[in-house]
Write a structure and sequence with these properties.
By secondary structure, the protein is an all-alpha fold. The chain contains 25 helices and seven strands.
Length: about 550
């Protein structure tokens, strides 16, 4: 923009200004940086636009002014004039979020202005810490919650709702201090859950899947709910909070099982649902299970979703989601898998029917597959075992934790399904290299009925690899004792050299059951002799 255009912005008619801004907006519709607009000129443009936005008589060009402000606010510098308290209050007012006004509902002629003002607030809040602080205190949050109560109104268009939720998401994500206020003072959990429930009920009444717009709005709400619940102390909830969580998980159950018009949107909805489930207290996971009588009354098919008289549709949806992420990870392996693995770990650890159902699906009774390595194949078990040696430590640890929980934290059972080599990492971390159980209590009755096929092969299963192997000839069968001793010393010398050169670090088991470094390779023999002596002493006693 040149000086002539700047003067037109400051002194021209509303119609001329509107034409100029439409041309600028069209030219920079996809621009995120403005090298041809200096910081000084940018500030002058913003100041001139704010002056027009303050005049109700210039309403004809307000939408164009706000669109230009939205375009300019994409750049993270040179927009200080937008981040003043007076400017942000102006945006809040044009967005219909000023709770001091008697009527915050949009009218037909105001919709475009409101949308552009909302988009401006999204950009400014995202890019400016100063704007975040001001908008957390200037009534913007209160205005959103007030309008949230009117979301049943069919005249309130989807885009207004969506950008309301986008603003609230940004504020709750970037300003942690407003989360308790939204939860307690403004009853945000209640209203947000009601909107999700309303969206589901509307789709059910239409006998139609959720539209893409419905999913977009639901995802924004789920993100806000995640922010509001991420720092809550789940061990010390009052009765009202417990009730909120129970109802919320019930709604999340419906979101996991609802159909959508778009496959991609369905996965996005499930992803945000999974993220939020990781914040839920243990007792609330019971709400993921529904009585089978509901399915029967609706005339639905049971298929494979019934277990112990419960509808496991939501749990099956979680396992299907895990399967999809294992087949085709989105983004990085860590971002794709850690939320769903964490979610399943928490659900299975907290709820016995969920754990038993997941155990059947993930770790079915062993049959002919014992002839293959645990990590070879396309089943969930195979894919999870393969990740037990992943270089991504978060994924590796969560996979191990999930499988360990499914085995009721029983070391022998865990090793049976994974092989000792794959299991060693978790066992070393928890001091269980010598066997035993984890610290979490489980019911005592056994669920480990082995098949006849597995029992026949069990004695020939290599505990390290976790698969059946034929007997191999003993390489030392024809050696004299002197030859055996010589080969043993050669091996000790080679291991010692690798140790001294820093290629390996021999370890032994400490008193806590965890690996401890040793100074010399011969200490392993000393430890073995001590163990043998202890075992002999126990037998003598």
């Amino acid at each position: 923009m040149n000086n002539t255009n700047l003067k037109l912005l400051e002194n021209g008619s509303d119609e001329d200004v509107g034409k100029l801004l439409k041309e600028f907006n069209s030219q920079h519709a996809k621009s995120f940086v403005f090298p041809d607009v200096s910081k000084e000129i940018k500030q002058q443009i913003i100041s001139a636009l704010i002056m027009r936005l303050e005049k109700s008589s210039a309403r004809v060009c307000h939408a164009s002014c706000l669109e230009t402000m939205r375009v300019l606010s994409r750049e993270k510098s040179g927009f200080d004039a937008m981040t003043t308290e007076s400017a942000l209050n102006l945006f809040v007012r044009h967005a219909g979020l000023d709770c001091r006004e008697s009527d915050a509902s949009p009218t037909i002629q105001d919709v475009n202005v409101m949308l552009e003002a909302q988009k401006c607030l999204c950009n400014i809040i995202f890019n400016s810490p100063a704007a975040q602080r001001i908008c957390s205190m200037n009534g913007c949050v209160e205005g959103i919650v007030m309008r949230l109560k009117t979301y049943k109104d069919p005249e309130l268009i989807h885009d207004i709702k969506f950008y309301d939720m986008r603003i609230l998401f940004l504020l709750t994500a970037l300003c942690a201090d407003i989360r308790p206020r939204v939860r307690a003072e403004h009853h945000g959990l209640t209203y947000l859950i009601e909107v999700l429930d309303l969206t589901l009920r509307d789709a059910e009444e239409r006998s139609a899947p959720l539209t893409d717009q419905d999913v977009d709005l639901a995802c924004e709400i789920l993100k806000i709910l995640f922010n509001l619940t991420v720092s809550l102390d789940k061990q010390n909830l009052d009765e009202e909070e417990e009730a909120h969580f129970m109802r919320l998980v019930s709604v999340l159950h419906d979101l996991l099982t609802v159909s959508t018009t778009s496959k991609d949107k369905h996965e996005e909805l499930q992803s945000h649902t999974v993220n939020l489930l990781t914040n839920m207290p243990a007792d609330s996971y019971e709400e993921l299970l529904a009585p089978m009588i509901e399915i029967e009354a609706a005339g639905g098919e049971k298929q494979d979703i019934e277990y112990d008289g419960k509808n496991m549709g939501a749990i099956l949806a979680l396992l299907d989601f895990l399967q999809k992420r294992l087949e085709k990870p989105q983004r990085s392996l860590k971002e794709s898998l850690t939320p769903i693995l964490h979610c399943l770990c928490e659900c299975c650890r907290a709820n016995r029917p969920i754990r038993k159902f997941c155990r059947i699906k993930v770790l079915p009774y062993m049959r002919g597959e014992v002839r293959n390595l645990p990590e070879d194949g396309n089943s969930l078990r195979n894919k999870l075992c393969k990740l037990l040696t992943s270089p991504v430590s978060e994924v590796k640890d969560l996979c191990a934790d999930f499988l360990f929980v499914l085995c009721k934290e029983n070391v022998a059972r865990f090793v049976k399904y994974t092989g000792y080599g794959n299991a060693a990492g978790l066992l070393a971390q928890r001091g269980l290299m010598c066997g035993g159980r984890g610290s979490t209590p489980y019911e005592s009755e056994s669920e480990d009925s082995e098949t006849e096929e597995f029992t026949d092969l069990k004695e020939m299963v290599n505990i390290v690899t976790g698969r059946w192997e034929e007997d191999k000839p003993d390489p030392m069968a024809n050696m004299t004792e002197e030859q055996k001793e010589y080969e043993a010393m050669q091996l000790v010398n080679q291991l010692d050299k690798l140790h001294r050169d820093g290629f390996i670090q021999p370890v032994g088991l400490g008193e806590d059951g965890k690996p401890k470094p040793i100074g010399h390779i011969l200490e392993l023999q000393s430890a073995a002799n001590q163990n043998a002596s202890s075992e002999q002493q126990e037998e003598d006693e």
